[in-house]
Amino acid sequence: MAIYKVVGKTAHDARLVAAMHAHGLTHLLTFNEPDFRRYAGIIVLTPAGVLAPPPTP
C-alpha cells in the first residue's frame, strides 16, 4: 500500500482494502466514502446511495 501514502488512521482503511483484495471483494458499504475513494478496484457505496431510487430517464 505504499503507493497510497498511508499513515496514521488511514492505515486501518488500507488494511481493510488489503483484506478485501485478498478475498476478492469489490464493494464496500460505508458512511465514510471520501476515505476510500483513493483505492483502485474498490466500489464504495453509502447507505443513502443504496436506498436512493434510481434516476428516471
Number of strands: 2
Query: Could you give the order of strands across the largest sheet?
Result: 1-2
Overall geometry: elongated
Main sheet characteristics: 2 strands, parallel
Mean pLDDT: 86
Query: How would you classify the helix and strand content by structural class?
Result: alpha+beta
Instruction: Give the proportion of residues in helices.
Output: 25-40%
* Low-confidence blocks of residues: none
Q: What percent strand?
A: 5-15%
- Following the backbone from N to C, one meets helices and strands in this order, namely HEHEH
Cα gyration radius (Å): 13 Å
End-to-end Cα distance: 40 Å
Write the layout of secondary structure elements.
Elements: H1 10-22, E1 27-29, H2 33-36, E2 43-45, H3 47-51
Parallel strand pairs: 1-2
Question: Which key features would you list for this structure?
Answer:
about 10% strand, two-stranded parallel ribbon, 2 strands, about 55 residues, alpha+beta, about 40% helix, single chain
Can you walk through the features of this model?
The chain is an alpha+beta fold. The protein has one domain (2-51). Helices cover 39% and strands 11% of the residues. The chain is built from three helices and two strands, in the order αβαβα. The mean pLDDT is 86.
